[in-house]
Amino acid sequence: MTARGRFITLEGGEGAGKSTLLAGLCAHLESRGVDLLLTREPGGTALGEAVRAIVLDPARQEICAESELLLMFASRAQLVRETVAPALAAGRWVLCDRYVDASYAYQGGGRGQPLSRIAALEEWACAGVAADLTLLLDLPVADGRARAAGRGAADRIEVEADGFFERVRAAYRARAAAEPRRFRVIDAGQPVEAVLRDAVAATAHLFEERA
Ligand code: Z5A
Fold it and tell me: Whose CA is nearest to atom 13 of ligand 1?
């Protein structure tokens, strides 16, 4: 029987450096012989990418907090069934740029949606597919926003005020504190090479458990 693969998720606030870390982390895992699937949320499937285009569209001002939450989970339910669960079952490792913790942080912390409701959606939509390791890139909000400022037009969520992103950060940190075995909090204010070094170190136990 093929051993189940490993599921690693990357989380963090705006401009924390997830995209920057992804390339180096992928290269490291593949250099160790991992058959890796890289994906993202919202998105990762044809349906999910369509949802992403809607939910991040700054012109879509009509989207209410409840719809936003459900759209994130619609994308997630599809990704789990179409991509993540089959890959893990085939022994592949999955590296996902955001997963369910983002809904607790953004829709729960940021938008104030009840955590119990998010937990009920998680149980239904994720069908027991949970991350083995979650890397949280932690950075003061002002620093992340300064990094992101140089990019193109902000999406529908990026236009929120600093207070929103402070609540997002607090919610992420609270989840990491509550689940220290799954989370590794990485100081995202370090140079890129140090962030990658910490991320690589955080994945080491996944290889030991596999051996
Ligand atoms: N969202 C949600 O609300 N609920 C959910 O359930 C899910 C998502 C799943 C899309 O996410 C949005 O969806 C996101 C949350 C919401 N909205 N917001 N805001 P995304 O992950 O696709 O997009 P993002 O959060 O906006 O990511 P980002 O801003 O692109 O950040 P990043 O990928 O972490 O950063 P980066 O592009 O790697 O780096 C940003 C800049 O900093 C860049 O110029 C780098 O060169 C620089 N950088 C990176 N690392 C460093 C270090 N270490 N030092 C100095 N400079 C650095």
Answer: 42
- CATH code at 38? 3.40.50.300
Q: Is residue 140 part of a domain?
A: yes
Q: Ligand 1 — pocket residues by CB below 6 A?
A: 12, 14-20, 41-42, 56, 72, 97-98, 102-103, 106-107, 147-148, 157-158, 191-192, 195
**For residues 125 and 108, what is the distance between their CA atoms, to the nearest angstrom?**
16
Task: Specify the 3-state DSSP secondary structure of 134.
Answer: strand
Share of the chain above pLDDT 90, in %: 93
pLDDT tens for each residue of 92-122: 999 999 999 999 999 999 999 999 999 999 9
2 in a structural domain? no
20 in a structural domain:
yes
What pLDDT, on the 0 to 100 scale, is given for residue 208? Answer: 85
Question: For the chain, which residues score pLDDT lower than 50?
Answer: none
Domain interval for residue 195: 7-210
pLDDT tens for residues 58-76? 999 999 999 999 999 999 9
Mapping DSSP to helix (H, G, I), strand (E, B) and coil, where does residue 182 land?
coil
Taking the centre of ligand 1 as the mean of its atom positions, its distance from the CA of residue 86, in whole angstroms, is 27
Provide the domain count of the chain. 1
Sheet with 133-138: list strands edge to edge.
Answer: 36-40, 93-97, 7-12, 133-138, 183-187
Give the nearest ligand 1 atom to 98 CA: 9
